[in-house]
Amino acid sequence: MNDFETLAARVDGTVIRPGDDGYDGERVGYQLAGPHRPELIVAAVSASDVRAAVEYAGAHGLPVAVQATGHGMPADATGGLLISTRRMTGLSVDAGSRTAWVEAGVRWAEVVQEAARHGLAPLNGSYPGVGAVSYTLGGGVGLLARRYGNAADRVRRVEVVTADAALRTVTPDTDPDLFWALRGGRGNFGVVTGMEIELVPVDTIYGGGLYFDTDLAAEALRTFREWSAGVPDEMTSSIALMPFPDVPQIPEVFRGRHVAHIRIAYAGDPAEGERLVAPLRALGPRLIDTVETMPYAKSATIHNEPDQPMAYRSSHVLLNELSAESVQAVLDLTGPGAPERAIVEVRHLGGALAAAPAIPSAVGHRGAQYLIGVLTKLEPSETPGAPEPVHGAFADVMKPWATGGRHLNFLFGDNATEEQVRAAYEPEDYRRLAELKAVYDPRDMFRLTHHIRPAAS
After folding, report:
1. What tens digit of pLDDT does each residue of 332-352 get?
2. Looking at the chain, which terminus has fewer C-beta neighbours within 10 angstroms, N or C?
3. CATH of the domain at 395
4. Would residue 434 count as lying in a domain?
């Protein structure tokens, strides 16, 4: 047998080459802008499949990319080997220890539902279709973030296939350096096949969305700025300004409007949550108001994000404070009546996100208080297309208030350059990551990710 046949015989999943049936379906994920064309895809069903794929890549000098859902692809895997983990869906919850074991292809929706059966919740993100492992490796700013912190800080144990094709169980005791690097260093140090995460004792929250029409959108953002500065850590919130086209595919209530959507997730007494939200409701009539006491199992309705794959480009900045001037700059660029049409979102950070974890991780810029991002929808194509003018303008406009930092999970596609990745870390942490990269991946096999280049020896 040749090497390809040997690999196919070793793998319980499927090995797919360009031109094979299923190639396009396997390589394309949620993000449709510029889907990659890898030389080889291993549709893995187990850690042993991942080991075989990494060993093959090492023997043939191929870089390795990993994709579960393809929600925020950081790099093009064209010419490399893509390990698809979407079939690795093992999931179990231990209610006694308040932990869950999640394999590499598990999505947050399944974890939320399984944990809810035990009155528990994970530190999941706003969209239930995102892969739990990849999200957590990048830090994880979720619906309960200000109350419970970064998802990466709640990892207890990691199973990872490193560049030598060894399957390692990594804990703070077995390998503190690698454990630190994996939690925040994303895919630079190997292919994570599963992890044990802590769950939190949350079964209900006071949450939902407040949707305001075009004439209140700007005032909603200004009010959110003042309101968010005084809320307790139990309140995690954000606001998005969204211009909707006047087309039949859009729900009639939003059609042709520039809507402000305030997202609420209060992990405290519902009566106090209602009192805290009252100043937002006082803005005026809502197109929709879904904020109420809800089972955490229904928390995906808070952001109510679309579940259909799409092509998009995103940029973001971090701020230490949300000033009136920065809010006005956002409105001038992307608010109602602005020349450029884009979705803009302001996420309130701080709270437990700023606290030092019991076991340190590589997650950077914990002191940031806000994240502002812009997103533009593109036409699906094999190439991302010409740069969108709003993104360059956004970076320039926000420069007076931005910290210069970035958050790894919000760096997508052509925006996930090495320079931007470096900006996601404190300088001393980036140096340590580069040094550890030289130890665990000296040939830089795992460079088709949020790339950290190995330190020179």
Report:
1. 999 999 988 899 999 999 999
2. C
3. 3.40.462.20
4. yes
Residue 175 contacts residue 166 (beta carbons within 8 Å): no
| CATH (domain of 434) | 3.30.465.10
Which of 61, 84, 107 represents a domain boundary (last residue)?
84
Pair (344, 231) in one structural domain: yes
| Domain count for the chain | 3
The pTM score is 0.96
Shared domain check, 40 and 16: yes
3 state SS for the chain: CCHHHHHHHHCCCEEECCCCCCHHHHHCCCECECCCCCCEEEECCCHHHHHHHHHHHHHHCCCEEEECCCCCCCCCCCCCEEEECCCCCCEEEECCCCEEEEECCCEHHHHHHHHHCCCCECCCCCCCCCEHHHHHHCCCCCCCHHHHCCHHHHEEEEEEECCCCCEEEECCCCCHHHHHHHHHHCCCCCEEEEEEEECECCCEEEEEEEEECHHHHHHHHHHHHHHHCCCCCCEEEEEEEEECCCCCCCCCCCCCCEEEEEEEEECCCHHHHHHHHHHHHCCCCCCEECCEEEEHHHHHHCCCCCCCCEEEEEEEEEECCCCHHHHHHHHHHHCCCCCCCCEEEEEECCHHHHCCCCCCCCCCCCCCCEEEEEEEEECCECCCCCCCHHHHHHHHHHCCCECCCCCHHHCCHHHCCHHHHHCCCCHHHHHHHHHHHHHHCCCCCCCCCCCCCCCCC
pLDDT, tens digit, for every residue of 153-167?
999 999 999 999 999
Asked whether residue 111 is assigned to any structural domain, the reply reads yes
Radius of gyration of the chain from Cα atoms? 22
> Strand pairing partners for 207?
265, 292
pLDDT tens digits along 271-327: 999 999 999 999 999 999 999 999 999 999 999 998 888 888 899 999 999 999 999
Q: Are 124 and 97 in contact (CB under 8 A)?
A: no
Unique residue bearing structure tokens 């956004």? 394
457 inside domain:
no
- Verify that 187 and 173 share a domain, yes or no: yes
Same domain, 75 and 99: no
Check whether residue 273 and residue 334 sit in a common domain. Answer: yes
For residue 403, the enclosing domain spans: 205-419
